[in-house]
From TrEMBL:
EC number annotated for this UniProt entry: 2.7.13.3
Name this polypeptide is given: Sensor-like histidine kinase SenX3
Gene Ontology annotations of biological process type: osmosensory signaling via phosphorelay pathway
Entries under SUPFAM superfamilies matching the protein: ATPase domain of HSP90 chaperone/DNA topoisomerase II/histidine kinase, GAF domain-like, Homodimeric domain of signal transducing histidine kinase
Domain of life from the UniProt record: Bacteria
Organism for this UniProt entry: Nocardioides turkmenicus
Length: 604
């Protein structure tokens, strides 16, 4: 309680203070206070008026009431005595048995004997109770001492009801803001916790740091959590000593995922014990029997007698579940404990989102850094690679104008121009394919592709080029069909680049072989040559975008360094892989390995 002018009063809520001022100044009252519930008490958070009154603690002005508290029961008792004026409730002094008890403020006046029944008595009371969406009393507006000394008439009552509705909205918004601020602080702490871990502490780290406190706070013998991770997978955590692995049983994992979504959508928790599950084993519903069997299997695996299943989520999205365990001889879980644990589920859902958002933010930053590097390399490589052939084209065209049409020199210039043009087309094709395969929204067009006719087609297309370079190309394919599921144009583009690479790095008189090797569930399309080979130190880098090794190109010019990168992207887009084996001076073998069509399970 403030005791003198030098003491600083608590700071009132600005919005609520304006409403209190409006009631007194505009409607004509000597005092107005707004109270917000804090547990079993009301706290005065806004107060305005020039009245002086007293409580059991002594004399007090309206301003000095700010920050004081009194029991909720005082208001509920007054409401029981009140007359209904709409949003405003009137407590006549004839019914008011509270008086000055419980620290309640009563204005100072000697007018206990009224001249007129409509005169205002010092124990008359005006209240506007505020209830939340659950019907709980969360605040109240108290108004006292009309300046005209009379009980409010109908016109004044209508105005007071409007102020009461406005005050209710403001109080509910204030409570919501306080709630969000509290939750925001929790999220900031979680985010700070993650970042202080130097990007090494993910969702599992949060669980490791909090599981002991969660178990102790909810009186659990252990806990098990499964939640969505930022990379699209899931994080599974069991408290130390809990002998459980989510990969041990697909049925249990599937059952838990089903229950998680159902519980979150219904806003419910689930209490499970052995007695209940054994009873459900004998029910006629096959789904109930299945989940009872799964539940008993889980209890046996974690050596528990009962468990409390709480969904983890945010808003309309289920993000996982928290399972709290109790062993044999321990008290069974109650609904009250379940409701308390539901708060953990909602709070933990926000932590899951925060952790995942941070992980995604970190991964995105890494991808953006990589994309920026690739972008810079692309610009530099395109500028460098296009400059020479374009300059040569310009020079050749200029020279062609000075040669006699049909002469030997004229035909030589035309041949050079065609060669430069083909080179430009090949470079642009590589750049376009690389751009397409780098786009996450681009997906292959799925179809069954027979590799045998595809390789024969590629062999025919490269026969002229190989003969012109004096390199023998052979093909070895099975007599039967070899089918994969994928995009024929992408697979063909990858194989063509393997063949072209072999031709570029093989001496005249050399040999290139194109063949297929099958295993139980894969087909390897291999291209081998006896060319210059790749130094061992460079073999891990040749699939990097724009990387061009030190080996000398013999049968043509080097490209922009995207050929093997394109092959690698095609392989990954088809759930496959690329293998490479090379010896400098001996030759190279590169294989595009793809799943056979009857073994394709997913497509990424």
């Amino acid at each position: 309680m403030p005791d003198g002018a030098s003491e600083a009063y608590p700071t009132p809520d600005p919005g609520l203070q304006l409403i209190a001022e409006g009631v007194t100044e505009l409607v004509g009252f000597g005092a107005a206070v707004i109270n917000i519930r804090r547990g079993d008490e009301f706290e005065i958070v806004a107060a305005y008026g020039d009245e002086t009154g007293h409580t059991t603690d002594g004399e007090m002005t309206v301003a000095e009431m700010l920050g004081t508290r009194f029991p909720v029961s005082v208001v509920t008792d007054l409401l029981d005595m009140s007359e209904d004026w709409g949003d405003i409730k009137f407590v006549p002094h004839e019914k008011n048995t509270i008086g000055e008890a419980e620290g309640y403020w009563v204005p100072d006046t000697d007018e206990d004997i009224l001249k007129d029944p409509q005169d205002w008595h010092r124990l008359d009371e005006l209240l506007a109770p505020f209830y939340d969406e659950n019907g709980e009393l969360v605040g109240v507006l108290s108004i006292d001492r009309p300046t005209n000394g009379r009980r409010p008439g109908r016109r004044q009552q209508r105005i007071l009801n409007r102020f009461a509705r406005q005050a209710k909205r403001a109080v509910l918004l204030t409570l919501q803001r306080e709630y969000l601020e509290e939750r925001a602080n929790n999220l900031l702490e979680a985010q700070s916790f993650l970042r202080e871990a130097n990007s090494q502490l993910g969702l599992k780290g949060v669980l490791e740091a909090t599981q002991e406190a969660m178990s102790r706070g909810l009186d659990a013998d252990g806990l098990y959590v499964q939640a969505q991770a930022g990379d699209g997978g899931s994080v599974v955590y069991a408290s130390p000593g809990l002998r459980w692995n989510a990969n041990d049983s697909g049925n249990i994992a599937a059952g838990q995922a089903y229950q998680t979504t159902r519980l979150w959508n219904e806003g419910q928790h689930a209490i499970v014990n052995r007695e209940l599950l054994r009873h459900r084993l004998h029910q006629s519903d096959p789904e109930q029997r299945m989940f009872a069997k799964i539940g008993l299997e889980f209890l046996d695996a974690v050596e528990a007698d009962s468990l409390l299943v709480v969904p983890i989520g945010v808003e309309t999205t289920a993000l996982g579940h928290l399972v709290l365990l109790r062993g044999s001889g321990r008290p069974r879980w109650t609904d009250a404990e379940g409701r308390l644990a539901m708060e953990f589920g909602r709070d933990f859902g926000r932590i899951v989102l925060t952790s995942n958002a941070y992980t995604q933010e970190r991964d995105l930053a890494q991808r953006l850094a990589t994309a920026d590097k690739v972008h810079s390399q692309l610009i530099e490589s395109v500028a460098q690679e296009l400059h020479n052939p374009l300059s040569a084209l310009t020079t050749g065209i200029d020279a062609l104008r000075h040669e006699e049409r049909g002469s030997t020199a004229w035909f030589q210039q035309v041949g050079n121009l065609i060669s430069r043009s083909d080179q430009l087309v090949a470079m642009v094709d590589d750049l376009l394919l690389f751009s397409r395969f780098s786009d996450p929204s681009s997906r292959p067009t799925l179809a069954y592709v027979d590799l045998v006719p595809l390789l024969r087609e590629i062999f025919e297309q490269r026969t002229y080029e190989s003969e012109k370079r004096g390199i023998e190309v052979t093909i070895d394919v099975p007599s039967h069909s070899v089918q994969v599921l994928g995009d024929r144009s992408e697979i063909k583009a990858a194989i063509l680049r393997l063949v072209d690479n072999a031709l570029v790095y093989t001496h005249r008189g050399g040999h290139v072989r194109l063949y297929i090797v099958e295993s139980a569930n894969e087909a390897a399309i291999s291209v081998t040559d006896n060319g210059v080979g790749i130094p061992a130190a460079e073999q891990m880098q040749v699939f990097t975008e724009f990387y061009r090794g030190s080996s000398q190109a013999i049968g043509g010019r080097k490209g922009v360094g995207l050929g093997l990168s394109i092959v690698d992207r095609v392989a990954r887009r088809h759930d496959g892989r690329v293998t490479l084996r090379s010896e400098p001076g001996t030759g190279t073998r590169v294989s595009l390995v793809l799943p056979l069509a009857n073994d394709m399970i997913s497509f990424g």
